[in-house]
Amino acid sequence: MDIFDRINELYDKRRQVELGGGDDKIQKQREKGKMTARERMEYLLDNGSFVELNPFMEHRTHDFGMNNKPAPGEGVVTGYGKIAGRDVYLFAQDFTVFGGALGEMHAKKIAAVMDLAAKNGTPFIGLNDSGGARIQEGVASLDGYGHIFYRNSIYSGVIPQISVIMGPSAGGAVYSPAITDFVIMVEETSQMFITGPKVIETVTGEKISSEDLGGASVHNTKSGNAHLKAKNEEQALDYVKKLISYLPNNFEEKTPIVPVDEDQDDYLPNLTDLIPFDPIRPYDVRVIIEEVVDRHSFFEIHPDFAKNIVVGFARIKGQTVGLVCNQPKYLAGGLDIDSSDKASRFIRFCDCFNIPLITFEDVTGFFPGIKQEHGGIIRHGAKILYAYSEATVPKITVITRKAYGGAYVALNSKSIGADLVYAWPNAEIAVMGPEGAANIIFAKEINESMHPEQTRQEKIQEYREKFANPYVAASLGMVDDVIDPRETRQALIRSLDMLKNKKEERPRKKHGNIPL
Questions:
Q1: Which of 185, 322, 329, 340 has the most CB atoms around it within 10 Å of its CB?
Q2: Is 171 a catalytic residue?
Q3: List of residues 6+ apart from 370 with CB closer than 8 A
Q4: pLDDT of residue 136
Q5: Cα-flanking dihedrals φ and ψ of residue 213, to 5°?
Q6: Can you say how many angstroms the Cα of residue 352 is from the centroid of all Cα atoms in its chain?
Q7: Integer Cα distance of 313 and 353 in angstroms
Q8: Apex 263 CA angle, 268 and 245, nearest 5
Q9: Short-list 383, 372, 311, CA closest to 336
Q10: What is the mean pLDDT of residues 434-453?
Q11: 287-295 long-range Cβ contacts below 8 angstroms, 24+ apart
Q12: Which residues contact 437 (CB under 8 A, 6 or more apart)?
């Protein structure tokens, strides 16, 4: 054998690895509406930028006839490439090889590329399509999961981690995505669950389909385990590209600045017409967001879960910001268990990666009810307080209408560390709404009045004029300025520029103990 024979052998082996489970299994994958692992990477990454790592790694199991079952690429493709010119590391599980099941060497490949991502300070992306642990390898496969979970955890807050669920993700396989920063699922073809429908039926007698148990709609609307739902695999991968565009490479860098549309007017005459003056009339806060941020830059996260709060990324003068906004269209914008979790998680992500936080506040309070109290609203609501207090990025609040009670304090008030709080002139900042306050404070006068309803309305108005306005809070330094709504974008631009070099330390400690 001369050198050219060896080179030809190398290329033959590469072709074998690239073929994965073979033509028949590739065809079955496509019949399900799914791309192959390599096709997904090709679509996601810049043309010609992918470099594969450890292509020849294989399992070393001999039990259950495994010595006669080759696993080209060990059921996972790993490597690095570029998205819009920016480096990323990634893996894509290959369902054509053992159903993408994770074994010892499969996990070793993923762990190795995760370590490289952390060492190089670049985002890490996982394209998940796996039936779970490789049963033939026994406890070695479980140990492999542990190595991945450990890295997901210790690299959390170091580099952004994004998971795309593009097929089944069952058993231990679901915990890795759960630890990562963002989870994207594909409708109809992706599922996540700890125990599958058959096991549930055996144990509890309940019958349910895989899709109804752990499909994209379930996890995007009910459980909140997934952040985005895609119609197909291409849209899911487009979401990854879009997410990356808002994020820094790692916790030591700032977010990229994009070119600004110079035609956009920073003075917003329409803003006064977009929010009803009546504090109890609903409106869609996304209309306000779209008006204030750079044109077409708002990217909502978790849009179908806990709709009473809206979170997402946008840009203001080309700079990435994180938005946390009450949504009066749902539950009057009040905070409940799910919205508290949703907001807290997003706040902490933004703080991890140097993304300034802007809060649009219009909140009646924490949502009342026995179910909420017994479900732990105290603990869940405390997460928002903790997340804002802990955050050291620039933090700006705009109170647009209502800011009542503990929810006012929780939503980035001055007392828990807001750098700047603005209020519109119609804002009501108080312990509770004027109606409830008047009923308590003036109960005796109302009850003894000849015309109780007329007296009640008079007392409501008296309370509103005396306390439910921004000027009392401004006189105490709780509001930095009362601004014309039409100047909101201008105020935010100035504030972000003023805070661009902000540095703030917290007391030295190992880590805090967020009320989980």
A1: 185
A2: yes
A3: none
A4: 66
A5: -80, -45
A6: 13
A7: 12
A8: 95
A9: 372
A10: 76
A11: 288/325, 288/360, 288/400, 289/314, 289/323, 289/325, 289/360, 291/489, 292/268, 292/316, 292/488, 292/489, 292/492, 293/321, 293/323, 293/489, 294/260, 294/261, 294/264, 294/318, 295/261, 295/264
A12: 430, 431, 463, 467
- How are beta strands 76-83 and 51-53 bridged, if at all? antiparallel
Yes or no: say if 275 and 288 are a contact pair by the CB < 8 Å rule.
Answer: yes
How far is residue 456's CA from residue 463's CA, in Å, rounded to a whole number? 11
* pLDDT at 229 > cutoff 90: yes
- Which of 79, 81, 103, 172 is an active site residue? 172
Token pair for 187: 């409708």
> Using CA atoms, how far apart are residues 375 and 411, in angstroms rounded to an integer?
21
Q: Tell me which amino acid residue 420 is.
A: L
Active-site residue, 322 included = no
pLDDT band for position 262 (50/70/90)?
confident
| Tens digits of residue pLDDT in 371-409 | 999 999 999 999 999 999 999 999 999 999 999 989 999
**What contacts 24+ positions apart, CB below 8 Å, involve 19-22?**
19/72, 20/72, 20/73, 20/94, 20/96, 20/97, 21/72, 21/94, 21/96, 21/97, 21/98, 22/96
Longest dimension (CA), the chain: 110
| Whether residue 509 has pLDDT greater than 80 | yes
- Please tell me which residue in 121, 157, 406, 417 is annotated as part of the active site: 406
pLDDT at residue 108 tops 60: yes
The Cα-based distances of 438 to 58, 189, 283 in angstroms read: 73, 55, 26
Q: What is the rounded CA–CA span in Å between residue 156 and residue 8? A: 42
Query: Which listed residue (99, 131, 171, 224) is catalytic?
Result: 171
Tally Cβ neighbours within 10 Å of residue 259.
Answer: 7
> In this structure, what are the phi and psi dihedrals at residue 447, rounded to the nearest 5 degrees?
-70, -30
The model's confidence at residue 158, banded by pLDDT at 50, 70 and 90, is very high
85 is catalytic: no
Q: Determine the pLDDT at residue 455.
A: 78
Instruction: From the candidates 71, 314, 403, 407, give the one annotated as an active-site residue.
Output: 407
Query: Strands 420-423 and 51-53: what pairing?
Result: unpaired
- Report the 10 Å Cβ neighbour count for 64: 11
* Total length of the chain: 516
What is the residue whose two structure tokens read 């703030």? 504
Mean pLDDT across 315-323: 97
Residue 172, pLDDT > 90, answer no
Is residue 148 within 8 Å of residue 112, measured between CB atoms? no
**406 catalytic residue (yes or no):** yes
Amino acid at 258: V
